[in-house]
Amino acid sequence: MATRKADVLIIGGSSIGLNCAYYLLKSGRKVTVIEADEIARGNAAGNAGHIVPSHIIPLAAPGTIGNTLRWMLDPKTSPFGMKVSLDPKYLSWLIRFALACSETNVQRAIPPLNSLGQLSARNFAQIIAEENFYCHYQEKGLLFLYKTEKAFASGQREAELMQKHGIPAEILDKAALHEREPAARDDVLGGVHFTGDAHLNPALFLKLLGERVRLMGAEVFEHTPVSGFGVADGKICTVKTSAGDFEANEIVLAAGAWTPLVARDLKLNIPVQPARGYSVTMSATKVMPRHALLLGERSVAISPMGDSLRLTGRLEIGNFDRIVSAKHVASIERSAREYLHLDENLDIHETWAGLRPTTPDGMPIIGRSPRHRNLILATGHAMLGLSLGPGTGQVVAELVNRHETAFDLSPLRVERF
Ligand SMILES: Cc1cc2nc3c(=O)[nH]c(=O)nc-3n(C[C@H](O)[C@H](O)[C@H](O)COP(=O)(O)OP(=O)(O)OC[C@H]3O[C@@H](n4cnc5c(N)ncnc54)[C@H](O)[C@@H]3O)c2cc1C
After folding, report:
1. Is residue 155 classed exposed, middle or buried when 0-12, 13-18 and 19+ CB atoms within 10 A define those classes?
2. Ligand 1 pocket mutation, candidates 20, 43, 50, 280, criterion most atoms within 8 A of CB
């Protein structure tokens, strides 16, 4: 089979890959997308659809380990789980994660997460307006709900920290909360409203983005897994796929949790682990939530999406399979019922499991490979891979075109590991 030539070849056609394709095409580059499955699905289509520039505190933060241990004592409701394995890469990831749960890591992560989150939120609004995407996009903010004084106090402290970094946050006492969100049950005692956040239906957004990218001229190869690379003189000279070999001027690796597996020939240390989560999408309830919600004590995310309601939760480190656990889906629904007036019987439209590509320090990896001059890495967005997609797309296009990037990407380079 003859080797195909590409200008910019993107591996992975989900949230990050398609946003990169969009901004590269807009900048005048020719784009080829290689996707192992179908584009516009990946681990993003069934997610909560939250666009959250307010999320500037990384997962690896003080208190995470304590919370995790406490949760694991109550496996029935725990929002957290982890694989038991002696795989050295996995153990090294866990140790790195534990070491990163520090105030120093939080301070290091806030500037890049804030810059990328703000850029992305602006880009979402622009794409949706300019391209006329109908995807249930709502700029109504994200509302955290709390049922205990302790969690509410901790939510307020976090909100005050975020306000110092320019994130709009309103602290709502019980009366104000119930006025703003009538779907909340009477014993919800307060909330924090991050008014700069938004939400949408991720499957619709990605489908429209995939169609747009094709119309703009991208060549898309679906059901075409990348199986390896040929490297010579510090450059990737061949990308091997089930449809034959490709040569490309520039390559963007955006294969989510699978990135370290795809890159196994490349002698790069990319510490990304899958963190599985679940969603359940159901028919509308009589009193639909007005906002995208986060249940403070349960870490369950809720999104009204047109005439459906989606609940998402759980973070299970280390598992690559995407089998839906009925037990955990039931626990997510029980949690939602603790906070919201939901009809007794709701029709379930879909249950889903997805993998968040998670780094030990809670920051994505975006930057040129230290070993290959035509490779850019764009992965590790963990629970923010939808939210940070359009910002990542823009800065990756800037890197490919060797332009100045919208903000300093050096804290996100893979060399930090
Ligand atoms: C329950 C849950 C709720 C979530 N809620 C939110 C939310 O509200 N907001 C938010 O921002 N994020 C959320 N996320 C996280 C978000 O879904 C992920 O961060 C996002 O999917 C990552 O996007 P990605 O493009 O990097 O990777 P993926 O979506 O994993 O896509 C990677 C793509 O690469 C392809 N690929 C893999 N191997 C190969 C190969 N060898 N060759 C070619 N292609 C390959 C895959 O098929 C896939 O399409 C949630 C995740 C879960 C699980």
Report:
1. buried
2. 43
Q: Cβ(333)–Cβ(260) under 8 Å? A: no
Task: Kindly give the interhelix angle for 15-26 and 389-400, rounded to the nearest 10 degrees.
Answer: 50
Residue indicated by tokens 């480190």: 317
Q: Is 203 in the pocket of ligand 1 (CB under 6 A)?
A: no
pTM, two decimal places:
0.98
Closest CA to 36 of 17, 19, 22: 17
pLDDT in tens, the chain (417 residues): 789 999 999 999 999 999 999 999 999 999 999 999 999 999 999 999 999 999 999 999 998 887 777 777 776 678 888 888 999 999 999 999 999 999 999 999 999 999 999 999 999 999 999 999 999 999 999 999 999 999 999 999 999 999 999 999 999 999 999 999 999 999 999 999 999 999 999 999 999 999 999 999 999 999 999 999 999 999 999 999 999 999 999 999 999 999 999 999 999 999 999 999 999 999 999 999 999 999 999 999 999 999 999 999 999 999 999 999 999 999 999 999 999 999 999 999 999 999 999 999 999 999 999 999 999 999 999 999 999 999 999 999 999 999 999 999 999 999 999
Distance 17 CA to ligand 1 centre (A): 10
What amino acid is encoded at 290 in this protein?
R
> 195 near 201, Cβ under 8 Å?
no
Helix axes 103-131, 202-215, angle to 10 degrees: 60
- Closest atom of ligand 1 to CA, residue 199: 8
Beta bridge partners of 295: 145, 300
